[in-house]
């Protein structure tokens, strides 16, 4: 029996996953939470096998939660759930010790397969090859920017709000605002439209043309 803890801030999503994964047997949930920090604490306390975390939740950063939990229980495997296939999410998940990264749009069995593979110590990150072949640090952003400023630039250009960026990167809103101010000053940008134009021109983001 694989003992799991899950964290997702949407109660309907949590409940649906609990029901679907428990239905076929072999997986037992010892905790379900809306906060990554609480889930990590439970995983450590219960010596769970798998910690399942949504990548974008308010409150405690899921990436920090993964690091802290794995530091306390090195055998713990972390599976990230995400509605995003962006490189930046994948990179942060990998850096946080992910054994698996599963899109919420995947088929139902995809998460079960990821959990079972992670439990065996195998990786399940289908997008990893694409990510490593095109690292974010080489995305074309101005060399005067720090890595963090490039991350903030890309997310803002994709239409994310400061609050969204703070959650994704595990930063405070004030810190994100500071990075935004610095990068716009360095690049001599004055508004959101110019920021997006810069990101497109430097191939930081790509726009699909019909």
TrEMBL record:
Modified residues (4-aspartylphosphate): 54
Keyword terms: DNA-binding, Phosphoprotein
GO molecular function, one term: DNA binding
Pfam families per record: GerE, Response_reg
Domain of life where this protein originates: Bacteria
SMART domains assigned: HTH_LUXR, REC
Ranges in coiled-coil conformation: none
Transmembrane residue ranges: none
CDD domains linked: LuxR_C_like (cd06170), REC_NarL-like (cd17535)
Descriptive protein name: Response regulator transcription factor
The organism of origin for this protein: Alloacidobacterium dinghuense
Source organism phylogeny: Bacteria, Pseudomonadati, Acidobacteriota, Terriglobia, Terriglobales
């Amino acid at each position: 029996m694989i003992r799991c803890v899950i964290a997702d801030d949407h109660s309907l999503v949590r409940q649906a996953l609990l029901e679907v994964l428990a239905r076929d047997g072999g997986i037992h949930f010892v905790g379900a939470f809306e906060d990554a920090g609480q889930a990590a604490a439970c995983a450590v306390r219960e010596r769970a096998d798998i910690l399942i975390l949504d990548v974008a939740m308010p409150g405690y950063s899921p990436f920090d939660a993964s690091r802290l939990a794995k530091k306390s229980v090195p055998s713990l495997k972390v599976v990230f759930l995400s509605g995003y296939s962006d490189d930046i999410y994948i990179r942060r998940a990998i850096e946080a010790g992910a054994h698996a990264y599963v899109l919420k749009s995947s088929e139902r069995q995809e998460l079960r397969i990821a959990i079972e593979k992670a439990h065996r110590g195998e990786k399940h990150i289908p997008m990893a090859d694409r990510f490593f072949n095109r690292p974010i640090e080489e995305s074309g952003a101005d060399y005067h920017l720090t890595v963090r400023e490039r991350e903030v630039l890309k997310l803002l250009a994709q239409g994310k709000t400061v609050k969204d960026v703070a959650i994704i990167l595990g930063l405070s809103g004030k810190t994100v605002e500071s990075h935004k101010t610095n990068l716009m000053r360095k690049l001599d940008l004055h508004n959101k439209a110019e920021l997006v134009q810069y990101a497109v021109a430097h191939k930081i983001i790509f726009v699909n043309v019909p």
